[in-house]
Design brief:
The complex is a heterodimer of chains A (433) and B (266). By secondary structure, chain A is an alpha/beta fold. Chain A has 2 domains: 229 residues, Aldolase class I (TIM Barrel), CATH 3.20.20.70; 131 residues, no CATH class. In chain A, 30% of the residues lie in helices and 9% in strands. Chain A has a 9-stranded mixed beta sheet. In chain A, α2 links the parallel β2 and β3. In chain A, α2 packs parallel to α3 and α6 runs parallel beside α9. The longest helix of chain A has 18 residues. Chain A is globular, with a radius of gyration of 23 Å. Chain A starts with a strand and ends in a 10-residue tail after the last helix. Chain B is an alpha+beta fold. Helix content of chain B is 34%, strand content 21%. Chain B has a 7-stranded mixed beta sheet with strand order 1-9-8-7-10-6-5. In chain B, β8 and β9 form a beta hairpin. The longest helix of chain B has 17 residues. The N and C termini of chain B lie far apart (40 Å). Classes of the chains: A alpha/beta (433), B alpha+beta (266). Chains A and B meet through α8, α11 and α12 of A and β1, α1, β2, α5 and β8 of B.
């Protein structure tokens, strides 16, 4: 299952401070080419989303046309749209309702925290913020909630502003994602407003505290991270699902009909994608930067788009936050159910279960026939000291106990020639591809 | 999905062109033809050859018709993409190829096989039989002990414009000696030069490019144009090679040695 993204414009008229789309290329959209490509790649179960540039700045007739074509192709399946509502009119709202589009609003909190979004001109931004509130009210669900994405920055997720954000999210009945802002290569200025991994950790844990006492809150990635630990559904979101830089989980249909990678990986100006799903990045991270990490199986190194220094071969810049959130949730899950079996308890969970469609049974060690007192913790038989490299304390440089440890990197580099592996070397004829 | 060893990523190459750029995916196949022709026309003594289980009858017939011999060295599972190594298997089968050496005489083929499969790989002998310059063979022997893909090491020995512990920028070099795009089959010489200005390697590259032109001048011009288009950045991190060319990028399997290496061809 993939996310299919309709990316109409590479150049967006809105002007948000931290946009990660590439500003360097402008591809004119051709709706018929985009639809033709969509029909070729869509399979039932794919998530279809319109996003890229600002969809509400498309001419109404174009939006009506493309929504009609998509709806006829996907039947009753969900069509999503991610929008800042810049340029949205009542006609847009009516159109979205007519085609039963699931709207995700890009909003970073109340108006005073949402100023990184929208036009850069202050007066135009003030008008935009007022219209945004009105538009949100127009698309609320019957229970009063609305879905969306909050991008966490220094502006809205530190100090007192974090409390304002939490209170706002509860009051307005926000249901959706709290994503960290990441810095694309072409926009290094935005590093000034990017959260540090430690700040993101605090923000996510603060949000988690609310969520753990309010089961109605669907705040991500916290709920998804709980599911990932429990292991009764597929790993989610894409950033922990071994998304690879060359064959991203998200398939983006560009304006000219070509299929590109996830738009988070557009930052270096190359769009095209590999046709073959691969796991090279995550598998290499497993034996390098993520070696021995307790939560590697439920993380995979994170999003290639938010890797250190913009180099997709690194793990996510926000490693510490991922790790800490998982740790926080693990402690609470085990605190409530001491004998719960989590995915991180099962060796090679991703390869052995996730890829094969298998699922964890979190209650396997709470069977009353096996354990008379399921609430009393009993260490699993034959359990070994688990590996646990805390990225906050040195990551790969720290000693760890798994089998890779037995092959120090310097030994590999300087290993003598003539061993069985060396015989298989073939760098005399490396031209073939 | 097995776990890979630290030093051995799977064979892997991805070429992702910029939108609108038509990448020629036939470079690799063309270069294989050039390598074969270099032996057939006696411009070098031997070359390695992959015998396909799906086409071995035609391939053997061609080798015999061209007056050459084939000596098998090992059986490997078939892989897609660039690889630094083979993946040996015991049994033949539809997913197996035979790696060996072709030459005009059996003695040379035996000599090559012996150098390849002896107690320790004789890189100097192999380099000699493949027609590589002695200085380049010598540097390769040293480099290969430290790095399985010594693009950076060759740059160190070239006049360096700017460098740090991890990164080298080159301005003064011969594009025909570049090996940083070979993962996509783009190359003139099939060996690591001791430097990107090595006179001996330049002399050998002339022979190779002449043969390339004799087979397909358009393709050869296209390869040279790609090599001349700069800047190009080659880097190796966490066992993954990443080459950023103005018109495309290449991702290929590399080797992890806990250091970052980068070469910029300006």
């Amino acid at each position: 299952m993939s996310t299919i993204l309709f990316y109409f414009k590479t150049q967006c008229p809105v002007g948000c401070e931290y946009c990660f789309g590439s500003p360097s290329e402008d591809i004119k959209y051709n709706l018929d080419k985009m639809i033709a490509t969509f029909k070729q790649i869509y399979v039932r179960g794919d998530v279809v989303t319109l996003h890229g540039g600002e969809v509400c700045t498309l001419p109404l007739k174009d939006l009506r046309y493309v929504l009609g074509k998509i709806r006829s192709a996907v039947g009753n399946d969900t069509i999503g749209l991610q929008t800042s509502f810049f340029g949205a009119t009542k006609q847009h709202i009516d159109l979205l309702k007519k085609f039963n589009v699931s709207v995700g609003v890009s909003v970073d909190g109340p108006p005073e925290l949402n100023t990184l979004r929208g036009p850069r001109d202050p007066s135009a931004n003030a008008i935009y913020q007022k219209r945004l509130i009105k538009n949100i009210d127009a698309i609320r669900h019957p229970d009063g909630s609305f879905g969306g994405i909050v991008v966490l920055t220094k502006h809205n997720a530190t100090g007192d502003n974090l409390e304002k954000l939490v209170n706002w999210a509860k009051e307005v009945k926000f249901q959706g994602r709290f994503n960290p802002m990441f810095t694309p290569n072409w926009n290094p200025c935005s590093t000034a407003i990017r959260l540090t991994p430690a700040e993101l950790k605090l923000a996510w844990i603060r949000l988690t505290d609310e969520l753990l006492v309010n089961h109605q809150l669907k705040w991500e990635p916290m709920r998804e991270f709980i599911d990932n630990l429990v292991g009764i559904s597929s790993f989610s979101p894409c950033i922990v699902g071994r998304c690879d830089y060359t064959s991203t989980t998200c398939k983006t249909i560009m304006g000219n009909g070509e299929v590109a990678r996830c738009d988070r990986c557009f930052q270096d100006g190359y769009y095209q994608r590999s046709n073959v799903r691969n796991y090279i990045r995550s598998r290499m991270l497993k034996i390098t930067e993520c070696a021995g990490c307790r939560y590697y199986e439920v993380c995979g190194g994170g999003c290639p788009g938010e890797a250190f220094d913009g180099d997709f071969r690194h793990k996510t810049y926000f490693c510490e936050a991922y790790y800490s959130l998982y740790e926080y949730l693990e402690d609470r899950l085990r605190g409530i159910m001491p004998n719960i079996v989590l995915t991180i308890d099962l060796p090679e969970y991703f390869d052995n279960y996730e890829l094969k469609g298998g699922r964890n049974n979190p209650f396997g060690r709470m069977n009353n026939g096996t354990y008379k007192h399921p609430h009393v913790f009993k260490p699993p038989e034959g359990s070994q000291k688990s590996t646990n490299i805390d990225p906050r304390h040195g990551g790969i440089a720290t000693e760890h106990g798994d089998h890779y440890d037995s092959i120090p990197p310097n030994q590999i580099r300087n290993r003598p020639h003539g061993d069985h592996f060396d015989e298989a070397f073939n760098d005399y004829n490396t031209g073939g591809i | 999905m097995g776990v890979i060893q630290l030093q051995s990523p799977d064979a892997f190459t991805e070429i992702l062109p910029r939108i609108g750029y038509k990448f020629n995916y036939n470079f690799g196949e063309f270069y294989s033809e050039v390598e074969y022709e270099m032996v057939r026309s006696r411009k070098r003594k031997a070359n390695v050859f992959h015998l396909s289980s799906h086409n071995y009858d035609n391939e053997i017939e061609k080798i015999i018709d061209d007056g050459m011999v084939f000596k098998p060295i090992l059986r490997s599972r078939v892989y897609g993409g660039f690889s630094h190594k083979h993946f040996p298997v015991d049994a033949l089968g539809p997913n197996v190829m035979v790696y060996g050496v072709i030459s005009h005489d059996l003695d040379t083929a035996n000599e090559f096989k012996q150098a390849h499969t002896g107690q320790s790989t004789d890189h100097a002998k192999i380099g000699e039989l493949l027609g590589y310059p002695k200085c380049c063979c010598k540097s390769f022997e040293t480099d290969f002990k430290r790095s399985f893909d010594p693009v950076y090491e060759s740059a160190v020995r070239t006049s360096v414009t700017a460098s740090s512990d991890e990164c080298i920028s080159l301005v003064d070099y011969d594009v025909r000696l570049r090996v940083d795009l070979r993962y996509a089959g783009i190359r003139i010489i099939p060996f690591f030069p001791c430097s990107y200005k090595c006179p001996e390697a330049q002399r050998v590259s002339k022979t190779w490019s002449d043969v390339m032109y004799s087979i397909d001048s358009d393709m050869t011009n296209e390869i040279i144009k790609v090599l001349e288009t700069t800047p190009t950045k080659w880097s190796n991190r966490n066992g993954q090679i990443h080459v950023v060319h103005p018109d495309f990028q290449i991702m290929a399997g590399g080797y992890h040695d806990s250091s970052y290496r980068e070469v910029r061809f300006l």
